[in-house]
Write a structure and sequence with these properties.
There is one protein chain. The chain is built from 18 helices and no strands. Helix 2 packs parallel to helix 13, helix 4 runs parallel beside helix 12 and helix 7 packs antiparallel against helix 17. The longest helix has 32 residues. It is globular. It starts with a helix and ends in an 8-residue tail after the last helix.
Length: 408
């Protein structure tokens, strides 16, 4: 990989920005333009974002840093003094929509695999992968359409908690399946590290940042502290992810969320809002590049080859997300708009699902190659189809909830 790939990548970012503006003019979310640009410019189409670029370590570190920046958008909204009234509702709804998705997808595929003599443990893996929600697409719509209201205020904290529940369930399933099927077992300690390490890193650096920010009043000094401590969080994550752990598995979005949540609860609302106003341009740029990165690995050719399993996966996951969110919102007496439309904003999926499917495929490649191929083909095709549909549906969800242009 040379400077040509870097220049092509920079050109692609500019193209994504203008494509987003063009798509927005026809009343569609700009994120759809960013996502399509990624697919068109990715290695499966024009190749301006080549496979060598996507595999380069500097590129991975850049994306990790931008994911941390996106995490600021979520973490700075998780201020306990503002959330304590709705805390129970958010936790319960997160659990019901996550476990509801796992149960629905596992049950549906369990029946299909039982009838077709496919190993039943594969149904649990599909259920575990289906839990994952990619928060960046919905957050991009929140930012672009300036949404605010019960659905938005429920979705943002759920974006942080959903990753935790999804990781716990998925890695638990992988541990159980690997113990019975794979030649090498997944260590329970590795599961704990993958789930807890990003949070520990974020909290530790965030506490240090908050301690310093409370003692500083100068605006420029606060901005410098935000930038410096964010880079410190990325640096710690980088060292552990690429130099200590056996394979890169840390969730940098989660590091950014934990970091921002910690310092946001230690400083005044005035300082928090001032920091976020300064960070907004960086967050906007980070969202474009992160979504572009989600789109680049997606192979549009898979749309033509998608089969029954892909259709079943997309539909059963949507049913699980919607019904689980509706049930959780209903039992906690959430507003009607949350019951009806929250599930629609939780459908974006691709980035995390591809990571989870890659882990599952790696585990099964030796002992069960046919099962590994079934997972990779189904999830890859579903990622392409679902992501386009999910963006449109999520936008509709916010619109039906009446939350467009309500943010101050």
């Amino acid at each position: 990989m040379g400077w040509t790939d870097v220049l092509f990548w920079l050109f692609t970012i500019v193209a994504a920005f203008f494509m987003g503006r063009l798509v927005a003019k026809i009343k569609l979310p700009a994120i759809l333009g960013w996502l399509i640009t990624g697919m068109v410019m990715g290695p499966h189409a024009f190749g301006m974002m080549s496979g060598a670029l996507l595999e380069a370590q500097w590129y991975a570190v850049t994306i990790n840093t931008l994911e941390c920046i996106v995490g600021l958008m979520i973490g700075t909204e998780l201020v306990w003094r503002q959330l304590k009234k709705a805390g129970k509702q958010i936790i319960v709804t997160t659990i019901t929509e996550s476990l509801g998705t796992f149960l629905v997808v596992s049950l549906v595929f369990g029946v299909i695999f039982w009838l077709t003599d496919v190993p039943l443990y594969l149904a649990l893996i599909f259920g575990g992968i289906a839990l994952a929600t990619a928060p960046a697409p919905s957050l991009a719509i929140v930012r672009e359409m300036r949404t605010d209201g019960p659905v938005t205020r429920t979705l943002i904290p759920m974006a942080a908690l959903d990753d935790l529940v999804g990781a716990v369930v998925f890695f638990s399933v992988i541990a159980v399946v690997s113990a019975h099927v794979a030649t090498s077992q997944v260590s329970p300690w590795m599961i704990v590290l993958v789930i807890l390490l990003p949070i520990v890193i974020g909290i530790a650096v965030g506490f240090f940042a908050g301690w310093l920010m409370r003692r500083v009043s100068n605006r420029r000094a606060l901005y410098a502290l935000l930038a410096g401590t964010l880079l410190l969080a990325v640096g710690v994550g980088f060292v552990l992810n690429y130099m200590v752990l056996p394979s890169p598995t840390l969730n940098f979005l989660l590091i950014g969320m934990a970091y921002a949540t910690t310092f946001a609860n230690m400083i005044s609302d005035e300082k928090r809002q001032m920091l976020m106003m300064a960070a907004n341009p960086a967050i906007g740029f980070a969202l474009v590049v992160v979504i572009l990165n989600l789109g680049a690995p997606l192979d549009y050719h898979l749309i033509l080859g998608a089969g029954l399993y892909t259709a079943v996966y997309i539909v059963s996951r949507a049913v699980g997300k919607y019904s689980g969110a509706y049930f959780g919102a209903a039992v906690t007496h959430a507003p009607k708009t949350v019951r009806r439309y929250l599930g629609l904003t939780l459908l974006p999926h691709s980035g995390v699902s591809l990571v989870f499917s890659g882990i599952a495929v790696s585990m099964l490649a030796g002992p069960a190659p046919a099962c590994a191929q079934l997972i990779s083909g189904t999830i890859a095709a579903a990622a392409v189809i679902n992501e386009v549909i999910a963006v449109l549906v999520a936008r509709k969800g916010f619109g039906w909830a009446g939350e467009f242009n309500k943010a101050s």
